[in-house]
Amino acid sequence: EPGLDLVHLVSTAEQRRKTHCEHHRDSVQTSSDGFPPPGAYIPQCDQNGLYLPEQCHGSTGHCWCVNSSGQERAGTRTGPGSPRVDCRTGETPNMDFIGKLT
């Protein structure tokens, strides 16, 4: 049926246009057994395939900000239970609040 060919063409075109983030994510998620390695960091991509400004490592609880190519921005990594950096402004959420208290 002509409809099936069109669907096939669309899906192969989408595969060719995978972004760096999607390739990175897919390479981690599909190891030899089809599952991500335990404790692996899996990049988070938005609906357009771009790196989300904030990335988190599920098994360690660390979060950090990245630039558009997925590179970690210096000084943005926070551990579990720490206030996270707002990746749009580069500030921790309660910096202003702490400043007002002192």
UniProtKB/TrEMBL annotation:
Q: Which UniProt keywords apply?
A: Disulfide bond, Glycoprotein, Repeat, Secreted
Quick one: where's region Disordered? 15-39, 71-93
Domain of life of the source: Eukaryota
Q: Choose any GO biological process term that the UniProt entry carries and state it.
A: cell-matrix adhesion
> tRNA processing: present as a keyword of the record?
no
Q: Which cysteines are joined by disulfide bonds?
A: C56-C63
Q: Where is the Thyroglobulin type-1 domain?
A: 18-87
- Subcellular location, in the record's words? Secreted
Pfam families attached here? Thyroglobulin_1
**Which Gene3D superfamilies does the UniProt record give?**
Thyroglobulin type-1 (4.10.800.10)
> Which terms in the GO cellular component ontology are assigned?
basement membrane; extracellular space
In Swiss-Prot or TrEMBL terms, this protein is called Thyroglobulin type-1 domain-containing protein
